[in-house]
Amino acid sequence: MTDLKKKKTGKRGPDRAKFTDEIEKLLADPNIQKMARFGQHRGNNTLDHVVSVAWVSFDMAEELGWEIDEKSLARGAILHDYYLYDIKQMGISDYEHGVGHPGRALKNARTLFNLSRKEENIILSHMWPLTLFHPPRSKEAILVTLADKYCAGNEMVLHRNRLGKRGREAKKLKQHDETA
Ligand SMILES: [Fe+2]
Ligand SMILES: [Fe+2]
Q1: CA–centroid distance, residue 40 to ligand 1 (Å)
Q2: pLDDT of 32-51, one tens digit each?
Q3: Are 173 and 179 in contact (CB under 8 A)?
Q4: Per-residue pLDDT band at 120 (split at 50, 70, 90)
Q5: Alpha helix locations (H) across 36-163?
Q6: Which domains does the chain have, with CATH numbers?
Q7: Ligand nearest, relative to CA of residue 125
Q8: What torsion do the CA atoms of 118, 123, 125, 131 make, to the nearest 10 degrees?
């Protein structure tokens, strides 16, 4: 958020350093890296996708000047597709995957982290309105469900996983992790 915007809105906005720190911690976990094994949206892997969703969510919060829980946004965004299976090998329809994978992601994520109710809702609601009975219940969940649709659109239609500066930033974080 620009200084001018800060003065205009009087809002602090999200803390980029705190968010980056949370993302780095998550990407350092080999269990999180497992998502790189599973494809998603035309050649992208799931890890690339969730990192994109995380940064798009953060960018939107920054643009809007929303004060958010950086840790919950990072954890919810990175874990929202932690379902760890190949859709084709599972032999399920797109609809079955669409409605079922948030629950599967949550179940898997619970084995790694002690998630807050907010974080659980971010994961469960990210396909809303497809998952009608699990609507987003926080600013963080709204950001992730919007960012997920935006990123999926980019990945499927434009065949790229991020646009501009944040994409390069996300890639740098990933490379840093791979060489560590
Ligand atoms: Fe998803
Ligand atoms: Fe997703």
Answers
A1: 9
A2: 999 999 987 766 789 999 99
A3: no
A4: very high
A5: 46-64, 70-79, 87-90, 94-110, 117-125, 139-153
A6: 13-179 (1.10.3210)
A7: 1
A8: -150
